[in-house]
Write a structure and sequence with these properties.
Elements (H helix, E strand, L loop, with lengths): L13 H16 L9 H11 L12 E2 H9 L6 H8 L7 H13 L3 H14 L1 H8 L14 H11 L1 H7 L5 H20 L5 H15 L8 H17 L8 H30 L16 H9 L1 H7 L3 H24 L4 H25 L14 H20 L3 H23 L13 H11 L4 E6 L3 H13 L4 E5 L13 H4 L4 E6 L5 H12 L5 E4 L5 E5 L4
Parallel strand pairs: 2-3, 2-4
Antiparallel strand pairs: 1-3, 4-6, 5-6
Length: 548
């Protein structure tokens, strides 16, 4: 692989950048607060607040409003509490430390929490487009067929980016840091830049990524490969030599990253030792089969997260596959574009292969669940846009009118897909993963004065439910239950406690464990044998000892 200086391209006008960011922000803002908090977003709030989970849980039911007040009540920020919580959490501290002042300034709501993710999702386009502009291209090609324009359109409109931009988690921050780290790695590791700003950007963005999301460590395989290739080039004759300053930056960055590793490993050790998290059992084992590891790289993040198979099969699967294959074929065939395409292809494949290897060793599928393949979406967007651009440029020389028409139609189709993903009422609209609002609406319509909800699952489950019930049924009684071997063990409700209420509603929140659920069901059946009823999405099971 030989470094190549990109062919100068026409400067994109300022209005173009502004328009791109405005469209990206607008698509990500539509319906930002329409979906309820779900479990992970509740966890984001609790950890960022430094509030922590209660050391003891109430043995008596609390009203919905009491649940909200007791766990979401604002508390003074405590770094010690936040770090202590992270010892039993699968995520790292950077996102939570940045989220706290944001929530302090804008308050706790669906919009304010998710707006923080929107900011990073919009900023993501700057390093992504700048990186796409590094591909050498013919300046005579119309600007709308340049790789950076295709990459921008795909990144702005594809469902994978849109969906996670509207989730109050650290994913978009990790994506932004990965894009910034990738851009600066290209500059210092491949182009051999001695600019201190690029070296500093590389060190800061990569180090920040390592403390944002643990899958960022799999990016290290790609980084190591790039630096290994760069060192091999240094040993070859007639190659430009690094300056003393560049060697100093490289060695200094290595020392900092090693120190960071030793800071991070103790936290990882504690996390892996926690019974609720060990071995990746917190997630769905067997969710992904081996064949899906590879298909995920092309289209599964978009298709699965968008919640629709038909249009993904018709549009996104062929588009992404054609783009990636065209990038590999046309890019490697062209000597000038070979270094850039090889760099991005390695970025896509090496982290994925390292994740698969980790899963094989640990015997889990945790890291390859869709959202943990998110960092590979960046090079896939780059490869897809690059392939479509190179293909258009090749066809443009023979049939310019037809090529322009096809490009415009494809642009429009991508924009329609993006708008349909975020607009309620459209066939493409993404439906919430955890329809807590629908459950709360159902409960508020049927709950009686002496009815009791038993919530089974992680601690955030009753809180996410209570958050919406508090608006319509603030006095609805909720009892949180966990099985004996999980954190904060509670004994099953006694027969005396159960008989206090006319009806019992069991809230089966995803993330709950079957052992605890079975224990709870047995306890309920002893005193409520008469009637059962499944609610929406089969997550409500209602037991009554009075005929409805």
């Amino acid at each position: 692989m030989e470094a190549a200086t990109p062919t100068p391209q026409k400067q994109w006008p300022l209005w173009g950048w502004v328009a791109l960011l405005v469209v990206a922000a607008a698509l990500r803002w539509v319906g930002l607060g329409s979906e309820p908090f779900w479990l992970d977003e509740i966890n984001s709030i609790l950890v960022a607040m430094g509030h922590g989970y209660p050391t003891t849980l109430p043995t008596e039911p609390l009203t919905a409003q009491q649940w909200v007040d007791s766990l979401l009540g604002w508390q003074p920020f405590s770094l010690h509490n936040t770090l202590a919580m992270l010892k039993t959490n699968v995520h790292l501290p950077l996102y939570y430390l940045l989220l706290h002042p944001w929530l302090t300034a804008f308050g706790v709501s669906e919009v304010s929490l998710r707006a923080f993710a929107v900011v990073w999702s919009v900023l993501l386009f700057v390093p992504l487009v700048l990186l796409a502009r590094q591909l050498p291209q013919k300046t005579a090609t119309p600007w709308w067929q340049q790789a950076w324009v295709w990459v921008a359109i795909i990144a702005v409109c594809n469902p994978f980016q849109l969906i996670y931009a509207q989730e109050g988690r650290m994913y978009t921050l990790a994506l932004y840091l990965a894009a910034l780290s990738g851009l600066s790695l290209w500059q210092v590791g491949v182009q051999g830049s001695s600019n201190k700003r690029w070296w500093l950007t590389y060190a800061v963005s990569t180090l920040s990524g390592l403390f944002c999301h643990y899958v960022f460590w799999f990016q290290g395989v790609f980084h190591a490969a790039v630096w290994g290739w760069a060192l091999i080039r240094q040993a070859q004759p007639k190659q430009p030599r690094w300056t003393r300053a560049q060697w100093g930056w490289l060695i200094g960055s290595g020392v900092v990253f090693t120190a960071a590793l030793w800071l991070w490993l103790p936290m990882l050790t504690v996390q892996q030792a926690a019974p609720t998290l060990s071995g990746g059992q917190h997630f769905s084992i067997g969710l992904l089969k081996p064949i899906r590891y590879i298909t995920m790289l092309f289209w599964e993040p978009w298709m699965v997260m968008a919640g629709s198979n038909l249009w993904a099969k018709v549009v996104l699967i062929p588009l992404t596959t054609i783009g990636v294959l065209a990038s590999l074929w046309l890019g490697i065939k062209n000597t000038n574009t070979r270094p850039w395409v090889g760099f991005v292809a390695a970025w896509a494949w090496l982290p994925l292969l390292s994740i698969i290897g980790s899963d094989v060793v640990r015997g889990t599928h945790t890291s390859t669940i869709i959202r943990y393949g998110m960092l590979m979406s960046l090079p896939i967007v780059l490869l897809t846009g690059t392939g479509l651009a190179l293909l258009c440029q090749r066809l443009y020389a023979h049939t310019p009118a037809l090529t322009n028409t096809g490009a415009v139609l494809l642009y429009c189709l991508l924009i329609v897909v993006g708008i349909g993903t975020v607009m309620p009422g459209t066939p493409l609209h993404y439906r919430g993963k955890f329809p807590v609002r629908g459950m709360a609406t159902f409960a508020s319509q049927h709950l009686g004065t002496h009815h009791l909800i038993l919530a089974n699952g992680p601690l955030a489950a009753p809180l996410s439910l209570a958050y919406y019930l508090a608006k319509t049924r603030p006095n609805a009684l909720i009892q949180y239950y966990v099985s004996p071997y999980r954190q904060h063990p509670l004994l099953p409700p006694t027969a005396h406690q159960l008989k206090k209420h006319d009806s019992l509603w069991l809230f089966r929140y995803r993330g709950g464990n079957e052992r605890g659920l079975d224990t709870l069901l047995q306890a309920i059946r002893r005193t409520h044998p008469i009637a059962t009823k499944a609610g929406p999405n089969h997550r409500w099971v209602i037991y009554t000892h009075k005929q409805p």
